[in-house]
Amino acid sequence: MIMFDYKLLAALAAVVEQGGFERGAQALGLSQSAISQRIKLLEARVGQPVLVRSARPQPTELGQRLLNHVQQVRLLEGDLQQWVPMLDEGGPVERLRLALNADSLATWWAAAVGDFCAERGVLLDMVMEDQEVGLKRMRAGEVAGCVCASPRPVTGGRCVPLGAMRYRGLASPAFIARHFPDGVRPGELARAPAIVFGPDDQLQHRYLADLGVSGGFIHHLCPSSEGFVRLTCGGLGWGLVPEQQVRGELERGELVELVPGQVIDVPLYWHHWRNGGELLAALTAHLLRNAAQMLVPIAG
Amino acid sequence: MIMFDYKLLAALAAVVEQGGFERGAQALGLSQSAISQRIKLLEARVGQPVLVRSARPQPTELGQRLLNHVQQVRLLEGDLQQWVPMLDEGGPVERLRLALNADSLATWWAAAVGDFCAERGVLLDMVMEDQEVGLKRMRAGEVAGCVCASPRPVTGGRCVPLGAMRYRGLASPAFIARHFPDGVRPGELARAPAIVFGPDDQLQHRYLADLGVSGGFIHHLCPSSEGFVRLTCGGLGWGLVPEQQVRGELERGELVELVPGQVIDVPLYWHHWRNGGELLAALTAHLLRNAAQMLVPIAG
């Protein structure tokens, strides 16, 4: 027995995804009053509001649960289409909602999944989250997959290793000349400003600890991968940067290593729903193949 | 009359900025029980909790107000130090909390403020926010300055124009060959996947509207400036990219213009507290001088 009228759920998804009733209606080829009526009917059926009406309508908690369900059903319907091609009425393209750590999104991710998305006509809806929040979204069913540093699968999910990102401690030549005129001594690093991505970024702490330096250090906070590189190049501080993000800067000498050869490898894992259907399984296979070439092997 | 014991407020600031009691204590050179006691004493004085105790302690609403006050006092104290140098006990370096739009942080920002921060020993605590949220934080006193596209000053703040970022509609040659084998026709753009930064990013809509195309279009969602460029290079979609972010990709032909010469200029404004002290005023002067060279003039 099918409990839901999926036309009503599609209206909810369109309003939220398009960020408003007018644009949602446009996306579905409906009038604005028609889409409003569908949302009201949906709310009458479930007996609760599904949207918080504001300039940008947000789903209520129940609304979010319904949207997660819509995403799962869409993925499973996608599997059916190869057997029942007439099901495909030229409706919206497949949409995958995924959580990624910022540095993956800024470096290898697009090259690893680009061909797959182009060939299968998949649209990605990406959210950028540090690992704990990304996994929380997996658990809540808000995203179908997640790239992060945690190897612990969530309930209902699988987890496979992708490889590790290699970080190097870098700064601009001007920064080094200013703070370390006699060469970089690890003990002095803590007194020169570092750059930290955010409160959860422990890479700079680990780098200092690996060099035998303990205690606090002064730092800027910059929650943007590319901003982090720009601040480093601009001589504002030193920081741990994925080597693949700054190949050009290293070649041109715009950034140099503080302690040559001193690296930190951060293992990355791909979390995905068990019941995500064929599309998610195919993406997983594609991702595993490509990521291995773009990342370094996970140690141990 | 001084109402507050600033030692207690400094303890609160350290716990929040360092993301925990242990690291906060370390930063102040205190034991963990000493810093806990200070927080408890502060809460006893104000009669309310100032922190929500969790793995990562978060300030309560009152706690946030106290932190904003600490930041303002620190800025004003900074002004005093040039007259009363003995006030400077080698304590924490000046810290400026600012909100920036993602594309500024990913491009011109660091080059525009790098020298200033290095010379004055200023540490930046940056938050990345779209314009409405950034201005809300200005209004709440959570940030001392904000770069965004809104020209309306908030209460207690000033607003000065910086210049405009120039965006071009770009895609990879492979993407263009796949979707537009006979050349890019604007009317067909809406049927090839676009990339959109987030629900508030209207640049792709404006670009299509400028080309006389109305209605919806299919798109990926990618809330990362550098991820956006990587997706474009990877052939996943077309999108509006700041030209200064992809000079190399354009020169090497890794990205090409969809409609040559068709640009969107986004004016940027610097919002800052009126009572932010000398440091903020000097940063403003420095920023205005440098940004003008890195951005294009604001039209009209």
From TrEMBL, chains A, B:
The lineage of its organism: Bacteria, Pseudomonadati, Pseudomonadota, Gammaproteobacteria, Pseudomonadales. Homodimer. PANTHER family: HTH-TYPE TRANSCRIPTIONAL REGULATOR ARGP (PTHR30579:SF2), TRANSCRIPTIONAL REGULATOR (PTHR30579). It comes from the Bacteria. Controls the transcription of genes involved in arginine and lysine metabolism. This is HTH-type transcriptional regulator ArgP. The gene is argP. HAMAP family: HTH_type_ArgP. It comes from Pseudomonas schmalbachii. Keywords: DNA-binding, Transcription, Transcription regulation. The keyword Transport does not apply. Coiled coil: none annotated. Residues 4-60 form the HTH lysR-type domain. Pfam families: HTH_1 (PF00126), LysR_substrate (PF03466). Belongs to the LysR transcriptional regulatory family. InterPro entries: ArgP, ArgP_gammaproteobact, LTTR, LysR_HTH_N, LysR_subst-bd, WH-like_DNA-bd_sf, WH_DNA-bd_sf. The keyword tRNA processing does not apply.
